[in-house]
Amino acid sequence: MSAYQQLQQRFKRHGCLEDALAVLHWDTATNMPSGGAEVRSEQSAELEVMQHELLTAPETGDLLAQAAEDGEQLDAWQVSNLREMQRLWRHATAVPADLVDALSRASQRCEMIWREARPASNYAQVQPALQEVLDLTRDKARAKADALGCSLYDSLLDQYEPGGSSAQIDGIFDDLAGFLPDVLPQVLERQAREPAPHQPQGPFPVDRQEALGRRLMKTLGFDFNHGRLDQSLHPFCGGVPDDLRLTTRYDETDFVSSLMGILHETGHALYERGLPVDWRHQPVGQARGMALHESQSLMVEMQACRGDAFLSYLAPLLAETFGGPAEVWQSENLARIYRHVEPGFIRVDADEVTYPAHVILRYRLEKALIEGDMELGELPAAWNAGMKDLLGIEPPEDRLGCLQDIHWYAGEWGYFPTYTLGAMIAAQLFDAARRENPQVETHLAQGDFSPLMGWLRQNVHAWGSFMDTSDLVQRVTGRPLDAEVFKTHLRQRYVET
Amino acid sequence: MSAYQQLQQRFKRHGCLEDALAVLHWDTATNMPSGGAEVRSEQSAELEVMQHELLTAPETGDLLAQAAEDGEQLDAWQVSNLREMQRLWRHATAVPADLVDALSRASQRCEMIWREARPASNYAQVQPALQEVLDLTRDKARAKADALGCSLYDSLLDQYEPGGSSAQIDGIFDDLAGFLPDVLPQVLERQAREPAPHQPQGPFPVDRQEALGRRLMKTLGFDFNHGRLDQSLHPFCGGVPDDLRLTTRYDETDFVSSLMGILHETGHALYERGLPVDWRHQPVGQARGMALHESQSLMVEMQACRGDAFLSYLAPLLAETFGGPAEVWQSENLARIYRHVEPGFIRVDADEVTYPAHVILRYRLEKALIEGDMELGELPAAWNAGMKDLLGIEPPEDRLGCLQDIHWYAGEWGYFPTYTLGAMIAAQLFDAARRENPQVETHLAQGDFSPLMGWLRQNVHAWGSFMDTSDLVQRVTGRPLDAEVFKTHLRQRYVET
Fold first, then answer.
1. What job does this protein perform (chains A, B) (predicted)?
2. How far apart, in Å, are the Cα atoms of A191 and each of A185, A302, A491, B386?
3. A5 and which of A1, A380, A398, B255 could share a cystine (Cβ 3.0–4.6 Å)?
């Protein structure tokens, strides 16, 4: 076997361990009794160590060097696969094992303190633990930056968004940050001229919510021969491309969050399902980064399912499912509910227009902290000032400010920008799809997602990790990834209609 | 780290892979959509190969040799753990990889043919494929017999029943085979004198069956913080000691099979739950062979739950659960139903008295086939003659004869005797427990299993694989494993009362 073939074998094993971990993770969230938690942690940790050892074993480095020297005739997919192997290997080998271990422990400790400090709105309580996480994260970033030849922040970003760069993001986010304070008053003014929406009155029985959710999943193209829908505390899309495990949670007083959650996760699932079959368990066959992944969920949830065409399809389904006064289920009324805009303190509750402000703020702050341009002591004030600048509101307490998100406290730095990059990519892809085929949008009014999904599968899903996100966006939409189309989308949906 | 400590680490990894495989297996049977089957096979196969490589890697052999040389001061449990590691290593290294692979493929092929040949009652159709399985199994047995220093058959038996020997089994089974034709007419004669039982009339709603099953699991001592009950086509007890996954299936026309199935699997589960906590993921911490495992399920299902004391507790519960005429739910009537004896062709439908005849027949035939004392062409006739000898009935077709069980066709040779060894051990242990503490039986009338389970946990479960089954039985019951107590039990329950 050639070095490349041996690498394929090693990475297949890595991928099978990843699959097993995905099933264990899903099981933990959906089925595991509480008494199984301790041994489950041990199992998962051991499998993760095995994965890490597979990557960092000297043989892997030797084979990668050998494959590079061999000059074996590889086709374009194999070349990309080898490039992705190298990327994974570089990330895994860059950081010494004791630093990985120390950061993992510090993050767990910090997350536990954060779980108390957040409801108490006590930033000072968690700041020392967060400092430890930040210091170790910067050590990790330094090690990765050396290996990857990039800035500290970009080395962390690359974990979630391969090939991403803060130079690119700065440009896009500055554009968006200039646009939002300008457009938001127009959005709110137009909204104020509309009649107040009729709010649906619950309770909304769980079994009906679930039946509707399943029905819409099928409408979107989810194949229940290759996946399931279950319940968990925190909704997610897990499993593997041939066996996708979606979860949601139900609230009998509010069906919107569960329904939109299911649609969102189905977008993630359809991406995974459409990944190239021939490259299962190989790096090039995996989803290309978190921004593109998020673009697929937002494509479904925001671009398609909050648009007029789909709402006109959804309205009678909701009326049939939940009954009650007819005016509630008119699609114009649903549009007012689903597209309601209101600046608020909490990111996860934010609407499509104000959401990017939350992300831009976090991105700027975490970059400054990682690059050493800011100290943790300055974080609460900087947060509040940023909210004032971007959304015109100031959190009265840190619980509603810099304590709200788990990411930093759990050691996840460099993740935040992918949310808004995803929203912009979704807008850009949806626009390109509609231009190529007007049925992509019009057929949504009949609940027919096949033109949209067919286009996405061919132009996005089937490419796996063959190229970087920016290249894919450029190739598929004919323009570089930027904020223009997203801005147009917001203006059209929230100001001009 | 000493060689022994390094071995502990390797075997911990082996154990964690085993855990992951157990969760995957449970998920396959309970949750997996059909489209996930192919990738699940790949995942499981890869994890199994990793397990096998852990065992057969030269380092493992070197460490075992080193640990033997080291003369490190090990305590008694560590010594037993090392002995079990050696046993696993010997089994894994004895057989060349290409033979393992060939046998696995041949068994899969044969099993597929058998699935068609059985309903068609066409032994000739499957005989060539079975011949291939048998030939390869004999090759495997030869390799293992060389490594273990025992006979061909015993080398296969040792996979399921460590330390078991056909010399011992021959003696016990001959004794039992002499007893059965003598006692069976007495059982049937006594039964004929009894009034015919009132048969409960269904339907028995699934939700009530399930609620009752859960209630009885708790009564037995099953802790739902450390396990679950779900449905699958073939009931089993899976999972891991801290997170046990039981399954059953329900039939609305017959609640007995599901109920007894749940009780049976709960016996298996309580054994796993009681294994020594300090030795999780180490070989010495695992259950000691299939005979002892089966003894724990039969202890619950046969010794305890078909006895008068428990039936007097169960009767009002059944009446409350299913309603209907009172005479059906009297414990004497239940006893007539649950202890009905009738020679039949099918092993899995057999009662407690005739079951051993099915096992003895299979044991004698598989031993002759493995040792080369019989040819596959002779199997159907030998089977039918054996049934005639032992139970006085002759299968009219091979579907009801030598085609009924999956074991041989799937490559599982040497397994059958553990069923009846388990039944005898259960009788012997139950007898010893009652002698030590009469409450073990009397408390069952109040649904109190704690004296029985406390005794089992201390005397059986907590020992894991510390010693061989025969030694454990001798130590705990004060007598060698033999058929005497089981024979007495059958006489007392089926002839003398």
1. Broad specificity carboxypetidase that releases amino acids sequentially from the C-terminus, including neutral, aromatic, polar and basic residues.
2. 10, 18, 13, 87
3. A1
Give pLDDT tens digits for B195-230.
999 999 989 999 999 999 999 999 999 999 999 999
Report the residue of chain B nearest A224, measured CA to CA. B33
CATH number of A120-497: 1.10.1370.30
- Enumerate the β-bridge partners of residue A231: A248
Angle at CA B203, nearest 5°, toward B198 and B209? Answer: 95
Inter-residue contact A242 to B38 (CB < 8 Å): yes
Residues in CB range of A68: below 8 A, 6 or more apart: A82
In a 10 Å sphere around its CB, with 0-12 CB exposed, 13-18 middle and 19+ buried, how is residue A69 labelled? exposed
Task: Catalytic residue, from B84, B161, B265, B352: name it.
Answer: B265
Instruction: Give residue-wise pLDDT tens across range A183-227.
Output: 999 999 999 999 999 999 989 999 999 999 999 999 999 999 999
| Interface residues from chain B to A (CB-CB < 8 Å) | 12-13, 16-17, 19-20, 23-24, 27, 31-36, 38-40, 42-43, 46-47, 50, 223-228, 239-243, 280-281
Residue A70 banded pLDDT, cuts 50, 70, 90 = confident
The complex's ipTM works out to 0.93
Region of B478 (left: φ > 0; alpha: ψ -120 to 50; beta: rest) is left
Q: Which residues pair with B230 in a beta bridge?
A: B247
Angle at A112 between CA B277 and CA A290, to 5 degrees: 100
CATH architecture of B102-497: Orthogonal Bundle (1.10)
Give the model confidence (pLDDT) of B383-434 as tens digits: 999 999 999 999 999 999 999 999 999 999 999 999 999 999 999 999 999 9
Peptide bond into A380 cis (omega under 30): no
Most A CBs within 10 Å: which of B13, B26, B28, B31, as the mutation test of the A interface?
Answer: B31
| B301 counts as catalytic | no
Token reading at B179 = 């007893």
Question: What are residue B228's DSSP bridge partners?
Answer: B245
Which residue shows structure tokens 């004919």? Answer: A478
Q: Where exactly are the structural domains of chain B?
A: 1-73, 102-497
Neighbours of B336 (CB within 10 A): 17
Q: Which amino acid is at A296?
A: Q
Each residue's pLDDT tens digit, A3-51 = 999 999 999 999 999 999 999 999 999 999 999 999 999 999 999 999 9
Residue B71 — pLDDT band, cuts 50, 70, 90? Answer: confident
Helices B166-193 and B484-491 cross at an angle (nearest 10°) of 10
CB contact under 8 A, B39 and A280: yes
Angular region, A249: left φ>0, alpha ψ -120 to 50, beta rest:
beta
Output DSSP code: residue A378. Answer: G
Q: Nearest Cβ partner of B228 from A31, A225, A228?
A: A31
Percent of chain B having pLDDT more than 70? Answer: 100
Q: What are the φ and ψ backbone dihedral angles of B254, each rounded to 5 degrees?
A: -155, 110
By three-state DSSP, how is residue A331 classified?
A: helix
Question: Residue B21, Cβ neighbours under 10 Å: how many?
Answer: 18
Which residues of chain A neighbour B17 with C-beta distances below 8 Å?
46-47
Of B12, B13, B226, the CB nearest to A36: B226
Instruction: Give the torsion through C-alpha atoms of B54, B57, B60, B61, to 10 deg.
Output: 140
The DSSP H or E segment spanning A240 is strand A237-240
Given a contact cutoff of 8 angstroms between Cβ atoms, the answer to whether B327 and B198 are in contact is yes
* Nearest CA distance, A12 vs chain B (angstrom): 9
User: Is residue A202 a contact partner of residue A255, using CB atoms and an 8 Å limit?
Assistant: yes
**Smallest Cα distance from B225 to chain A, Å:** 5
Beta-carbon contacts of B464 under 8 Å, excluding residues fewer than 6 positions away, are B275, B276, B279, B284, B285, B286, B287, B288
Contact call for residues A40 and A28 (beta carbons, < 8 A): yes
